[in-house]
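Hi V.,

You were right to ask for the full record rather than a summary. Here it is.
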Amino acid sequence: MRDGELTWGPLGGDGDREAVAGLAGRCHAVDGGMSEVTISRFAADGVVTTGGRTATGVLVAAAAVRPLSPGAAHIGLVDPAHRGHGIGGTLLDWGLDAAAAVDTGASGVTVETEALTEAAERLFASRGLRQVFAEDVMRFDLATAEPPAAPLPPELAPHEWTPDLAGRFFVTYDAAFRDRPGFPGWPAERWVAWTAGDEEFRPQWSLLATGPDGDAGFVTCAEGWIVQVGVVPSWRGRGVGGALVAEALRRMRAGGARQVLLDVNVDNPAGRLYTRLGFTTLGRRAKFQASR
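Predicted structure:
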């Protein structure tokens, strides 16, 4: 089909993968976020795609719908130089229709973005979609900035992750997070496997803050990422979380890391802590679903 000056059709092959990567790079350079995650959505198993090309063959719009269990997920991209002409609406409407075919159980579609903009919010709202999740991706540039000076309280000491300490890490995680909405309530075995089973997990950067009266907080890290930070309720407000992050950053920098990323829910007050420590917001990822 044709939409204005664009010719539309499914994507496939090495050339289209390179074109999607280029389009994602142009979008994220303006909107923030991480293009790698967006690109991966177009390569998922069972994905259905469409793309819009100019008369000279340049890909300036693309969308993908992939199956979930249950449901389906849609993501779209419009080149910043081609926005404001209704192309985003065309992609979204295509995605909502395509999701019905991908999700044979009719469980509904989740519209995703790795770089939420005000224009995207307005578009999603115009189709009756509501935001169900949002988190900021934040970055610390270790190539240009020193890790902050934020020492642990003197009665606490950091201990690196070991198999023998994994159970205590879990107990501290459970105490720190169980009062939060959406806490999954995983058993220790599942959380430890999820944490340490990641091939990019780095035990030497993952720390447990321990004192004479027990464990106060923890941080777990992977290559280039701070994965989780938690402080038990009795130790909150005493600088434990910030000190653990600062120590992890120092160890990451000593290990050759150039930047460190983390995710923080937009409703989590820890975002202010990370800003004070020197993190900057790279972009906002979000999910929208049909209003009920």
